[in-house]
Give the backbone structure.
Amino acid sequence: MTAPYISEVGPMVTGRDVELAAIATLKKWSSTYLADAEAQLGRPRGSLPRIRAWTTSHDFEKWPEDQLPCVLLISPGLAEAPNMDGGGAYRANFGLGIATIVSAARMDDTAALAKLYCAVMRTCLIQKQSLEGFASGVTWLDENYDDLPSIDDRSLGAGQAIFAVQVDNVSQRWNGPAYPWAVVPEPPTDPIPDDPTATRVVVEENPIPIA
């Protein structure tokens, strides 16, 4: 049996890791939370469509009807400066934005659904704060609702929530490999090669008569 790889570099957590952890958590739990919202509102079970698409795209307006409702997530970077513990491990709060995009026949219904779906996803994230063991906490920072332009006779609405996701040990200070290994030659970086050096000069005479 091959021994597991032990990194000398240590963890290298990115915003993409945060996005994927949040998506995995919401995929697992969103149907349960939507069912609870139906019960709280006295709606028939299954009357709130389950999320049909999950993505990290910024574009709110290009979703075909059969992919709504959808959830968009994006981690634009750190919400604040990272902190380091005594052992050199950094703890960071990554910003995380989530948008729920919905559509309904009437504008009022669209606005209500956008707010409801946003509240459902927000509640899921602040209650399942570990993001399936990835994070050490999720802090809810802000929330807003935007009416999106109608497209192809659809009325689109979005509920957007902002969070700070705390992740421990995202990078390790000091340590690292004692020497470089698996070095791959770098390609040349100069876009224009140096001018060649002439090794000989040929002079041709071309007399021009004087009138």
Notes: The radius of gyration is 28 Å.
